[in-house]
Write a structure and sequence with these properties.
Radius of gyration: 19 Å
Shape: globular
Number of helices: 9
Strand order of the largest sheet: 1-2
Helix content: 55-70%
CATH topology of the largest domain: Serine Threonine Protein Phosphatase 5, Tetratricopeptide repeat
CATH architecture of the largest domain: Alpha Horseshoe
Number of strands: 2
Order of helices and strands: EEHHHHHHHHH
CATH class of the largest domain: Mainly Alpha
Structural class: mainly alpha
Number of domains: 2
Largest sheet: 2 strands, antiparallel
Length: 191
């Protein structure tokens, strides 16, 4: 078993040796140093949980586990932003293994799978995010989009209708309109 000794970069950030060992296995030396600098500068915080999330504790499970999982989650977001989707997925999966109650983790896994054109896996992850927190427009919208790409038009229509029930902004409503119009045309052609 690995020794868990915190290494403090600031008062609010800690990176433990177990995480450091995991990073060494995943990344080349340069990427490890770059990632450590990102943590040290406060661009990613192991306790903030701020990538596509309000950073609010979901209220289930251990708060400390959630904080620890956010370190992996934010690392995944860092990789996602660099178009390193496989590495992002590895980090998101570690976050989920530590704290499985945050819908943002599953949502971002869905995004990474979608970027890799693995729509079946993206569908699965979006559905997990919805099971945890069903009222998020962007999750329903992305699920509808993935189902559309999988030619599951009836399911896609249901997902887009659920998205429209989540009080979308005007811009979000306009994005939905294209899909809803196209699906309406397809339903007419099927009959």
């Amino acid at each position: 078993m690995a020794l868990l000794v915190p290494i403090s970069f600031t008062n609010k950030m800690h990176l433990n040796l177990l995480n450091l060992c995991a990073f060494r296995r995943l990344f080349a030396y340069k990427e490890l140093v770059s990632l450590m600098l990102v943590f040290a500068l406060g661009l990613l915080s192991a306790s903030d949980g701020v990538c596509n999330s309000k950073g609010e504790f979901p209220g289930k499970g251990s708060y400390n586990a959630w904080k620890k999982a956010n370190g992996f989650y934010n690392t995944g977001c860092h990789f996602f932003d660099q178009n390193k989707y496989t590495e992002a997925l590895d980090s998101y999966k570690q976050a989920v293994s530590i704290y499985p109650y945050d819908s943002s983790y599953y949502y971002n896994m869905g995004l990474a799978f979608e970027k890799k054109k693995d729509y079946v896996s993206a569908e699965r992850e979006y559905k997990k995010a919805i099971a945890i927190q069903p009222g998020k427009f962007h999750v329903w919208y992305n699920l509808g989009s993935v189902l559309y790409d999988l030619n599951k038009f009836d399911e896609s229509l249901r997902a887009f209708k659920r998205a429209s029930a989540c009080n979308p902004t005007k811009a979000q409503s306009e994005k939905l309109k294209w899909y809803l119009d196209d699906l309406a045309k397809r339903r007419v052609l099927v009959r």
